[in-house]
Design a protein that fits this description.
This protein is mainly α. The protein is built from 3 helices and no strands. The longest helix has 13 residues. About 15% of the residues are buried.
Length: about 70
C-alpha cells in the first residue's frame, strides 16, 4: 500500500509539471525513476489510472542516461 501511496503522490505532482521537481529534468527524476523501476522485481506495476506517471516514466526511460 505504501508504494501505491507514493505513486499517487507522484502522479499528482506530475499533473502539475513535466518532471518531478518542475520543468527541468533533475536528480529528483533519477531517484523517482529508480523507485518506479524497482517496482517491477517486486511484481508491482503502475496502475493505468496514473497517466501522468506513465507519461513521465516513458519520457525519462527513453533518455540515453536511463539506459546506462
Amino acid at each position: 500500500p505504501r508504494v501505491m501511496d507514493f505513486v499517487a503522490i507522484l502522479d499528482r505532482q506530475l499533473a502539475q509539471s513535466r518532471f518531478v521537481a518542475g520543468d527541468t529534468y533533475s536528480v529528483a527524476d533519477i531517484t523517482a525513476l529508480v523507485a518506479v523501476d524497482f517496482m517491477k522485481p517486486a511484481r508491482l506495476s503502475v496502475p493505468d489510472a496514473m497517466t501522468h506517471v506513465l507519461r513521465w516514466h516513458a519520457e525519462v526511460s527513453a533518455r540515453p542516461s536511463a539506459k546506462a
